[in-house]
Design goal:
Blueprint: H1 2-18, H2 20-49, H3 53-61, H4 67-89, H5 95-114, H6 121-142, H7 152-170, H8 175-184, H9 188-212, H10 218-242, H11 247-270
Helix pairs in contact: 1-2, 2-3, 2-4, 2-10, 3-4, 4-9, 4-10, 5-7, 5-9, 6-11, 7-8, 7-9, 8-9, 8-11
């Protein structure tokens, strides 16, 4: 990714030297298209599956946005998409099922943040990517296993805690609860209610953390104004399609997205 970005930067400098005004106009158009396209794609995936804004949009946004701005934009757009689509699955939100994930998850976030200075995050993300690929391949090849209630709410809370740790450490709060929901054998609405409510809680904590850390800049504000309408449009289209997807197709979509997330984590961090 860094080599591609370097080549693009070189081309931009050549255009800027030839015609500065044309360069500025082209940059504004490119910015609008790239940010809008990433937001539309990320919103659609989140609307369809209940997660995936960041893993879909980040690779697109990094072509025109600095990493800190892109990272905070992911949090803003992800949270917006979650809020917009939450009414669709609100009927399936069961406090007794959701809270054992959310409360330990919020406790886990600062632990993950504390680990940032102790762990090579890039290597860690590659490891998570390998785990996601292995889980996806195993499930697709061996088929869906019988539902398991092993561990009850204590096990759910453990998954929630480590999901929060991963969220604080690497912005990866979603994979563990998503995989766990499929192992529990819940319906698509029940599964989505769990990991969407969980992700929204963790994202809200992350958004507060970003604000306290001074990441709410003018540049971010402009990016949000550009991206948010496309995020909401994509999310609306995604949730409309979600209503027409069967239980089996939804499970397969989630598996494929987890696999693609794993592959993206491996590729982007291996060549960074």
């Amino acid at each position: 990714m860094s080599r591609v970005a370097s080549a693009i930067a070189t081309d931009r400098l050549a255009v800027a030297a030839a015609d500065p005004n044309l360069y500025l106009d082209a940059m504004q158009i490119e910015y609008f298209i790239v940010v809008g396209l990433g937001a539309l794609a990320g919103g659609f995936v989140a609307g369809l599956a209940g997660f995936g804004t960041g893993i879909t949009a980040m690779g697109i946004w990094l072509y025109v946005l600095p990493p800190p701005v892109a990272a905070t934009l992911v949090v803003v757009c992800s949270a917006s998409s979650q809020v917009q689509t939450l009414p669709k699955i609100w009927h399936a939100v069961d406090r007794k099922r959701v809270l054992p994930f959310i409360i330990p998850g919020l406790i886990g976030v600062p632990f993950g943040t504390a680990l940032l200075s102790l762990i090579d995050v890039r290597t860690f993300k590659i490891g998570i990517g390998c785990l996601l690929l292995a889980y996806t391949a195993n499930t697709l090849l061996l088929g869906k296993r019988p539902a398991s209630n092993w561990g009850g709410q204590s096990a759910d809370g453990t998954i929630g805690f480590f999901g929060g740790v991963l969220g604080g450490l690497a912005g990866l709060s979603g994979p563990l609860p998503t995989m766990w929901a499929s192992l529990r054998g819940w319906s698509k609405d029940q599964s989505r209610a769990v990991f969407q409510a969980f992700n929204l809680s963790i994202l809200s904590a992350a958004l507060l953390s970003h604000a306290v850390s001074g990441f709410m800049t003018r540049e971010l504000g402009f990016a949000v104004l550009t991206a948010l309408p496309f995020t909401l449009l994509g999310s609306w289209l995604g949730v409309a399609l979600y209503s027409r997807v069967s239980e089996e197709k939804f499970s397969r979509i989630v598996l494929i997205l987890l696999g693609l997330s794993g592959l993206t984590l491996i590729i982007t961090n291996a060549i960074a």
